[in-house]
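Example record

One chain of 240 residues, shown exactly as stored in the release files.
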Amino acid sequence: MSKPAALCVAPNLWRIPVAPFSFVNVYAFVEDDGQVTLVDTGMKSSAKRIEAGLALMGKSVADVTRIVLTHAHADHAGGAAGLLERTGVPGVAIHQTDAPFARDGHAPPRDTSTFLGRLANRGSNAFPAVVVAEEFVDGDVLPVAGGLSVHHTPGHTAGHVSLLHQPTGVLVTGDAIWNVRKLSYGVKAFCQDVKLNERSAHVLGELEYTVAAFTHGPHVSDQAREAVRGYLRDADARQR
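Predicted structure tokens for this chain:
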């Protein structure tokens, strides 16, 4: 049986898997007037999956009026340039620290303290350059579907953010924590600063939310905050 093109996470909030097994997710927030905000855009090749997800929601790319990026990596920002062109949205919103990388179309450098990070720096970390219309910072509340608060969780990139949708209690973790097979900090080779990522992820244990929506892996709606806090606690214990 084929997987659905979009899954409802909360009222007017959908997860659109753009890679098999929910390995990469885009999130769609629907306003009362029907306009759609996308959080992340997947890879350059993700357009058809996004279109299919929107169609299942009864929407299309013509309804997309805002694009927010959690960070400037190709699997999150790679599809942004194409979507801007198709939707007519003037530019994306992204944290001010990652904005120059989005404009340049190149991910920040990877952590050279790991062998895989050094190896990743030798490869192409490019994606189509993106027009940035808005830069935000920690503590800002974006006017998305009743309020999307910005929580700076640097390390995966220096400008990486997690986003809390206040009306529904859904936390979009970005890549601060993954849920591929199990909760984890994700792949170290993808991080700009591995240790900082592990420290800043603890912000997610302090917030109040009912659903954890991961950009890698399926969302968790059953005792989500407790699951994240438990993972962080266990990860700390393993490092002692």
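Notes: Residues 206 and 229 are 8 Å apart (CA to CA).
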